[in-house]
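Handout, page 2. Input:
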Amino acid sequence: MTGGNFTAAALARSGALRSADWRYRLAVGWREPTAAIGVLLALLFGYLIVVPIVTLLHDAIEVQFGDARRAGAEVGGWTLHYLERAMFSPVAGDLFWEPLRHTLAISAGAISFSLVVGGLLAWLLTRTDMLGRRWFATALIVPYMLPSWTFALAWRTIFKNRAVGGQPGWLESLGFTPPDWLAYGQVPITLILALHYTPFVILLFGNALRRFDSQLEDSARMLGAGPATVARRIVLPMMLPALMSATLLIFAKCLGEFGVSYVLGLPVNYDVLATSLYRSIASRQSGVAAVIAAAIMLIGVLSLLIDARLVRQARRFVTVGGKGAMNRRSGLGILGLPALALASFIFAISVALPLLTLVLSTIMRVPGDFSLANFTLDFWIGSNLETVALRSGLLLTPELWLAAWNTLRIVGIASICSGLCGLLVGYVVVRSPVRPMAMFLRQVTFFPYLVPGIAFAAAYLSLFAVPRGPIPALYGTAIILILALAADQMPFASRAGISAMMQLGKEPEEAAQIIGAGWLRRIVSVVVPIQKGALVAGILLPFISGIRGLSLFVILAVPSTDVLTTFSLRLLDYNYTQAANGVVLLICAISYVGTLAAQKLTRTNLAEGLGG
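Output:
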């Protein structure tokens, strides 16, 4: 045999061995229960996450019922009518371009404000000896724990004018009528979102500053650099990845923000993309709604993909010295009192004043009248009230308890499902030898994070509004809310499960397997007890997010499936301001207490990082 033939034969045998080895490992992998469970999970999340989005995109190019004449095609045929109407028609400005401009303007303002204020506060909390630093480290992130539209309701209570009718605001009751630009529209929406997302910057930027080595600053000062030069040439370049990440994440959140714009924009027809989508759905323009939702989704996906790329590039930045990092705090000296005043002012306008406003508004008969005789508990526990549709106090209203029951039932079931599925996803991703399936599960369960909630809700409405095969129409039922919420919370639940399973070795399971325990027994008796903390986190964190969530529910809920958030907005639409504010206070209390409980159970501290 010649040398060439020998080499070819050897290579052929080597290739055959590798192929046989691969087929053997694949066959063994598929015989493991993790493979079967992985297939079931992949099918489940493919249907609950991928199919709704594909259906939404399909609705954007399919002629809907009632649009055949305008589209010039039969119902069910393909068309570019909705894309043309939303993007290029005479009404495109009102439907898409003006809301897009408003969204970008609000996002730019909110990002700029939150970066400046949040960056300064993060530096004061992590790098200085500011008085009360530890207390402010927790107090200043409270707005991040509360629904963003809480502050919008407080703003409306104070600044509301006669432009939209109903009860006057506090300032108008005291004799001062706020101008429209201050009461509604871009200015208040921008300011409220900026205050809501300032804690986001404090968390991200503060975490980066905490890891920054003070020796780098010391070295620059030894070479004669002044404070401004050190900040511009040393600190900011190192912190740029964290700042860019905060910028893109805040933009993605502003993109899908609905509640604040609904409360302060919709009354004066100031639309952003989220409220324009809501209007299109409410007016039954499903094709146009699909185009707007697809645009929101595309912008959100692109922004978060850019953020993921920046995070990977940020690993090139080394901010900790090899001989041990130093995090020396600077003395503020005479600037101590101004720093304390700034932190106190931000806490007052972002937490204390809004919550105090909501509390006082629920116990005042006439808004803005602070005389003792004007205070009452009628809006909480009164009866035979003068209001037409709300004859009893909030706590005596059956609709409140129905909404509370719906909230606990729907959000509770969805959270339990997402928590259990998250743990199973973590188990399959870490344990399964079939890596392509594990990678698919890892990616598909994270995808809802890339899609703004309002667009994800529109996708579910598109899929489940009509019967499809054996699946009946689910719109108007609690099932669609449970499915949508469970799928929407999977990024958090699956990451909690994956993180927990990566820390659990195979030895406990192998020991149980040696004594004859089957897979199910190993899961119930070994994995779940060891990972109960992660399971609780995977349930509790989606529960907190679902309690204060609005975007999904405002699209998918109907009066019979009202939850606390939609019940509050319904009261607001009827101009029952005191009752609406009372419901929001209940939501805030549940959300805040739940967040603290989650931190205690998971042994994390939100003030020291995102913590989930």
